[in-house]
Design a protein that fits this description.
- The protein has four domains: 179 residues, I/LWEQ domain, CATH 1.20.1410; 196 residues, P-loop containing nucleotide triphosphate hydrolases (Rossmann fold); 72 residues; 176 residues, no CATH class.
- The chain is built from 31 helices and eight strands.
- It is of the alpha/beta class and 650 residues long.
- The strands form two sheets. Strands 2-3-4-1-5 form a five-stranded parallel beta sheet. The protein has a three-stranded antiparallel beta sheet with strand order 6-8-7.
- Helix 5 runs antiparallel to helix 6, helix 16 packs across helix 18 and helix 27 runs parallel beside helix 30.
């Protein structure tokens, strides 16, 4: 029975390796909860028993009369160990080599092993292994002495301990729900997008300033970074700061949380959600759900209400005390809702002394006053940074690369002129590059370089003129895209804009949405001439900068005179599609499928009335009345609105 013994030894050896992997993974948690520590000890004991069984089989072999029984049990154990190994591989793969694997590492290490489906599967595997082990060892008992029985009992006890651990941690499937419940805000998406767009090598000067060095070292507790011009440089600098902290301050005893304020997300970036997001991120850094956070969830979640701002603030204070020090970085405070901003700053000032706070904003009176006693650093992109950016962007435009190969001095000339005109503003350099892309020969490009505006307003005027000079279909598409982005109640995803444009292209009698009528995603951006971009992680299509939004809003009556009525009409026509005439969906599952297919349905249902402004023309008014009088259509929109309101977004 040497072959059978070899099979048993192989299976047991694999089981030992899996045990070692699990101990290595869970044992790496600093200050792990007691039950995790107990589980590690149980696995170590199980590993010792497996080693003992391994020794017995190697030394004594397996008697022929026990062969078939042992073979059956071992084969079943092999399958179970393989399943357990696959789960181990998944958690081992959580920590990847990239920066962003490290960024999300804390949260994923906490959440992945405690997913309900994973826990149930692991528990099933453990139960099956126990049964199969018991069977195999019962058979071995026929040829073994009392020591084998003792081994079986010991192994069964340890498997029981592991099963008890998994069942007890089954309650921690709540961990996922608690982390998600703390806040609907996800600032990792914005951080990732900005880092992706950042030109390598820019902003390095910031880290060498005395102000930043003093803040990073803890000599100054609060650092306010400000700038008066469009703050693309400041936002990129802030993302670089977070990236630097993540790399250099990687100890699990150091906390990091950050927030991006956004002028288009005032409704969701409430004080409660902002503080909740900071709590959420520090929970992920900590690696476990603190009792005080779990109590809040247990108290409020069943009633579907949020804890008060003070309760969340106390949870934040408690979490910060669990670290040696904590970094909190808040970007674009000037874009925070003015009704929220003062209270948010006040809460940040009240945090304990082991907090290091960095905030960035434009020069606004209330912010300047709030940080009057803080260390201050003025942010402005250096000419060298802008030059690096322009050089890199030239290489992305085949036409410009071709021109520069023909005229050897042209690249230096472009860089020199754009740096001079930009005056430390990446945005101006970017918009000027967009204007150069339209030139068809070197001579006209050189002439354009000589007359580039150095004021942002004039640059936007020129950009709009270029958009409107495009062929009619392209110009119309661009103006509709820009109109939706400017007037939408909330940020829109690319698919929503595609469906919105498709409905605006309807003939008067069209009532069915055709997939072939959806505009191409790349075309949406191309026709806008650099005024709009798509965030790759979130899928949101937005204006390139908040100053672009400000420009369009100041001139909306001239640029988009009928925008609100056009958007209202599009929403009504969308809600009146033939697909909705049978009324609302009967189940949430069907409703989700309907929203997945009809991407503008959520926005149109929730926000069509927000676009009712001024007097409506006869056509729009007639369509609105027809919609309101059609019970099935109105019921569908109402149900969608209620469903979306119960979720995040809308």
């Amino acid at each position: 029975m040497a072959e059978l013994a070899g099979t048993a030894v192989g299976a047991i050896s694999l089981g030992i390796q899996v045990c070692q992997g699990l101990v290595e993974y869970y044992g790496s948690w600093k200050d792990a909860p007691r039950d995790v520590a107990r589980m590690c000890q149980s696995i170590r004991s199980l590993e010792e028993r497996l080693n003992a069984v391994n020794t017995v089989v190697k030394n004594n072999g397996i008697a022929s009369q026990a062969g078939s029984g042992v073979q059956s049990g071992i084969d079943s154990c092999v399958a179970s160990i393989a399943e357990l190994q696959s789960q181990l591989i998944k958690v081992q793969e959580i920590s990847g080599p990239s920066i962003w694997s490290k960024v999300h590492g804390h949260g994923r290490r906490l959440l992945y092993p405690f997913r309900e489906s994973t826990l149930l599967k692991l528990n099933g595997i453990v139960a099956e292994m126990r049964e199969n082990l018991s069977f195999a060892l019962d058979v071995l008992q026929l040829q073994s002495t009392e020591s084998s029985t003792e081994q079986l009992e010991y192994v069964s006890t340890k498997v029981d301990s592991l099963s008890t651990f998994i069942l007890s941690r089954h309650d921690d499937q709540e961990s996922i729900a608690i982390v998600n419940w703390l806040s609907p805000l996800n600032f990792f998406v914005a951080q990732n997008d900005i880092l992706r767009r950042r030109q390598i090598g820019t902003g390095e000067w910031l880290f060498e300033t005395p102000e930043f060095e003093a803040w990073l070292a803890g000599r100054d507790r609060i650092l306010w970074c400000s700038g008066q011009r469009p703050l693309i440089a400041l936002t990129v600098a802030r993302s670089s700061i977070i990236n630097k902290i993540q790399i250099q301050q990687s100890s699990r005893d150091v906390g990091l949380a950050f927030a991006y304020c956004n002028y288009k997300e005032h409704d969701i970036q409430t004080l409660s959600n902002l503080i909740g997001s900071l709590v959420q991120q520090l929970v992920q850094c900590y690696g476990a759900i603190p009792d005080e956070v779990r109590v809040l969830y247990t108290q409020y979640n069943p009633r579907n209400i949020r804890p008060s701002e003070d309760e969340l603030s106390r949870a934040l204070l408690s979490l910060i005390s669990k670290f040696s020090h904590v970094y909190i970085v808040v970007d674009a405070l000037d874009e925070c809702n003015p009704k929220t901003r003062g209270k948010f700053i006040e809460k940040l000032h009240q945090l304990p002394t082991n907090l290091r706070l960095l905030c960035s904003s434009r020069h606004l009176g209330d912010i300047q006053e709030a940080f009057a006693d803080a260390s201050h650093l003025e942010i402005r992109a250096s000419d060298a940074d802008v030059a690096l950016y322009v050089q890199a962007q030239i290489l992305q435009v085949p036409k410009l690369v071709k021109f520069c190969k023909k005229a050897r001095d042209l690249q230096d000339t472009i860089v020199e002129k754009l740096v001079m005109k930009a005056k430390g503003m990446f945005l101006l350099a970017e918009l000027h590059l967009e204007s150069l892309k339209t030139k068809t020969d070197i001579k006209s490009l050189r002439k354009a370089l000589d007359v580039l505006p150095d004021k942002l307003e004039k640059t936007y005027d020129d950009a709009l003129e270029r958009i409107q000079r495009q062929p009619e279909d392209e110009s119309k598409l661009a103006m509709r895209v820009l109109s939706w982005i400017t007037h939408a109640v909330r940020p829109l995803k690319v698919e929503e804009i595609q469906h919105a444009i498709a409905i605006m292209n309807f003939d008067p009698d069209d009532t069915t949405l055709d997939e072939e009528g959806l505009p191409d995603e790349a075309e949406l951006i191309t026709v806008c001439g650099g005024s709009a971009v798509i965030d790759q992680d979130s899928g949101v299509i937005r204006l390139v900068h908040y100053t672009t939004q400000d420009y369009f809003e100041r001139h909306r009556s001239k640029i988009f005179p009928t925008a609100q009525a056009d958007i209202l009409c599009a929403c009504i026509r969308y809600l009146s599609l033939d697909s909705f005439k049978n009324g609302p969906c009967e189940t949430n599952s069907d409703l989700r499928k309907r929203q997945a297919k009809f991407r503008l349905l959520g926005y149109a249902s929730c926000n069509w009335a927000n676009h009712v402004c001024g007097e409506l023309d006869d056509t729009v008014e007639e369509r609105a009345i027809q919609f309101l009088n059609e019970k099935s259509l109105l019921s569908n929109a109402t149900l969608v609105r209620l469903f979306v309101s119960s979720c995040v977004g809308g």
